[in-house]
Design brief:
Oligomer: single chain
Distance between the termini: 54 Å
Largest sheet: 5 strands, antiparallel
Radius of gyration: 18 Å
Structural class: mainly beta
Shape: globular
């Protein structure tokens, strides 16, 4: 009987751990372009996902999302906290702060990916992960909010709904 209980507990943990929205590439150097592929493993407790929102963290600039067939693509723009040097001597003071894919349908039984490209500024802190909060919305007001960010020094593994995290590496 103990074996069955342990096996069931491990299976439940594996399911919960794999249920989070995650990044395909989980580390990248600062001062370089980064392609963020958000892996969305399911809908909302049986309902299909019909909106995916990604909050762009400060220090990620020049964001360009990839369109998805069957989904409407919107961006929210705003001022950055400061000016950032970009390519070819250009300085950016505002840009995309949120990306929203909507109107499509990701059934609960399926998996999909949502992609954007951005530039990781050189002054990002390589001593701490960079978090991209993601919200999945479903019909009837249901939502899965992958927005939790651990306190400094605390493990993200203890959170119920951790935001996708990117380990920042020193510039090359």
């Amino acid at each position: 009987m103990k074996t069955i209980v342990i096996g069931a507990a491990l299976a439940a943990f594996a399911t919960a751990a794999s249920a989070h929205v995650t990044l395909e590439t989980r580390e990248a150097p600062v001062g370089a372009s980064y392609k963020a592929v958000f892996k969305v493993p399911h809908g909302c407790k049986g309902a299909p996902t019909n909106v995916v929102r990604v909050k762009i963290p400060e220090g990620v600039i020049g964001v360009k999302p990839m369109p998805k067939p069957g989904w409407k693509l919107e961006t929210v723009t705003g001022k950055y906290a400061r000016a950032y040097p970009y390519y070819h001597g250009v300085t950016l003071t505002e840009g995309v702060t949120e990306v929203v894919w909507s109107g499509g349908e990701l059934p609960d039984a399926f998996y999909d990916e949502f992609v954007l490209q951005g530039f990781l500024t050189k002054d990002l802190n390589t001593e701490a992960p960079l978090y991209f909060p993601v919200v999945q919305e479903c019909p009837g007001g249901a939502a899965a909010r992958w927005i939790e960010i651990p306190a400094a020094g605390a493990p993200a593994s203890e959170l119920e709904a951790p935001a996708p995290a990117l380990k920042l590496l020193p510039a090359r």
